[in-house]
Write a structure and sequence with these properties.
single chain; mainly alpha; 75% helix
């Protein structure tokens, strides 16, 4: 019996090591698949575009050049666009997370009057929308066109995220703790501020990152509603790319004519992606640890 149990333990250890090796290999493959496109854009942004299209930049840059970044940062709107993006992202994130919390917490209360009605009301908005023109007319009739609040108010509550936060409140905030606070005379607002919010920091971090990424990358809403005033960085990048498209007047001002202009245009495509993505790539590692705990807890059906 002792020999048999020893053999079983050895087999278990061997199986565990084999499974670990397989999991590490799968994870490495997934990492390469996910990370390589970003790496490719990075090396392409400092390579000769003709070498990029010839397949010479598979792993390392070819024909190293910083002309694309020089052209991007020469535009006077870059700094203002970056500051506008920071402002819109911070204000929009605070606004969206606040709206998620004040919407999801009441919906998490099973004794809320009309809870089923409000649930259906929110769900309908996930499947049906008025479209761009009716939405624009509504925003215009409220006087928000040209205001930065047109970027936040029309989509203030992301219903999918609200459902995740609601489920987190239902499954991860101990009911016994809330009942104990109620017995001690704590008000509903006090419970929300002193118990619910401190216990929901993981899902708070997840929703904050979701909102930050959405607002940072959003250029279409600004294009529709701001009318060129206070353009965020992605919209500035888009405008730079459009301005760099080949035309007779532009080609005449660039040494090398159309060939050099086309080369610069291709560089700008890659450089714009990197410039717009770097801030989010810098912030993400600081909140990554909350993702698994917060997102998975909120995803549990409740």
């Amino acid at each position: 019996l002792h020999v048999r149990s020893r053999r079983q333990r050895q087999m278990c250890i061997r199986d565990r090591r084999t499974s670990d090796i397989v999991l590490v290999a799968i994870t490495a493959v997934v990492l390469i698949i996910v990370a390589y496109p970003l790496y490719y854009v990075l090396i392409a942004s400092v390579s000769d575009p003709y070498d990029v299209y010839a397949g010479k930049t598979f792993l390392l840059p070819s024909g190293f050049t910083l002309d694309g970044y020089a052209a991007v940062f020469q535009d006077p709107n870059i700094v203002s666009g970056f500051l506008n993006s920071v402002k819109y992202t911070l204000i929009g994130t605070v606004f969206s997370v606040t709206m998620l919390y004040i919407t999801a917490y009441p919906m998490a209360q099973r004794d809320l009057p009309g809870r089923k009605f409000f649930s259906i009301f929110f769900l309908i908005t996930m499947y049906f929308g008025g479209g761009l023109v009716p939405t624009y007319l509504v925003v215009k009739s409220t006087g928000l066109v040209g205001s930065m609040w047109s970027l936040f108010l029309p989509g203030g509550v992301a219903v999918g995220n609200m459902i995740i936060v609601r489920n987190y409140f239902q499954n991860s905030v101990p009911k016994d703790l809330i009942e104990a606070a109620q017995i001690d005379g704590c008000s509903k607002m006090g419970i929300f501020l002193r118990i619910v919010i401190p216990l929901s920091k993981p899902i708070l971090a997840v929703m904050a990152v979701f909102s930050m990424v959405a607002y940072w990358n959003d250029w279409f809403t600004a294009l529709i509603y701001l009318g060129g005033k206070g353009s965020p960085l992605p919209l500035v990048m888009r405008n730079i790319l459009i301005k760099s498209s080949a035309s007779a007047s532009q080609a005449a001002t660039i040494s090398g004519g159309y060939a050099e202009l086309n080369k610069l245009t291709e560089l700008l495509k890659f450089c714009s992606m990197i410039v717009a993505a770097v801030p989010m790539l810098v912030i993400y590692p600081f909140v990554q640890k909350y993702f698994e705990k917060g997102f998975m807890a909120g995803a549990v059906k409740g």
